[in-house]
Amino acid sequence: MGMSVGPAEGDVPPEMNTTPLIDVMLVLLIIFLINIPVQTHAVKLDLPQQANDQPAEPPKPPVIHKVTIDFLDNIYFDGNLVDLNTLTGYFQRAAAQDDQPEFHVRPEAQTRFETVNKVLASAQRSGVTKIGFIGNEVYAN
């Protein structure tokens, strides 16, 4: 029986254990990061100042006019039967106001497109900017 006292000829020489070295390096890195002064980047903003101590009054609800067009091509302005020229006059008066009222157009299901188009063209020529359709859910099916 033979006994081996030294490393064999094909063995790799032992390496130094680097784990404690890496641990010390990480501890030093954390110490340096803690000791670095914190730099704050501040941006100066000129915020608006409130003129008085009164809270701002809530906005008043807009004036809403309903324009209904039935299947017989009759035009109703706030429930009153009107012709296209009278409706154009209402549109022009509304467009001249600083705070324009809203116009809600509600055509019935069997209304001809030509009549609705005339109403919308009249509103556009008059300068009305707040106009929309209501009751579109009846056309979903």
TrEMBL record:
Membrane topology recorded in Swiss-Prot or TrEMBL: Single-pass type II membrane protein
Compartments, record wording: Cell inner membrane; Cell membrane
GO terms for cellular component: plasma membrane
UniProt keywords, alphabetically: Cell inner membrane, Cell membrane, Membrane, Protein transport, Transmembrane, Transmembrane helix, Transport
Membrane-crossing residue ranges in chain numbering: 20-38
Signal peptide (UniProt feature, chain positions): none
Keyword Transmembrane helix in record: yes
Main location: membrane
Domain of life: Bacteria
Gene Ontology BP terms: protein transport
Molecular function terms from GO: transmembrane transporter activity
Family: Belongs to the ExbD/TolR family.
Subunit structure, interactors included: The accessory proteins ExbB and ExbD seem to form a complex with TonB.
Function noted in UniProt: Involved in the TonB-dependent energy-dependent transport of various receptor-bound substrates.
PANTHER family: BIOPOLYMER TRANSPORT PROTEIN EXBD (PTHR30558:SF12), EXBD MEMBRANE COMPONENT OF PMF-DRIVEN MACROMOLECULE IMPORT SYSTEM (PTHR30558)
The protein, known as: Biopolymer transporter ExbD
Biological source species: Hankyongella ginsenosidimutans
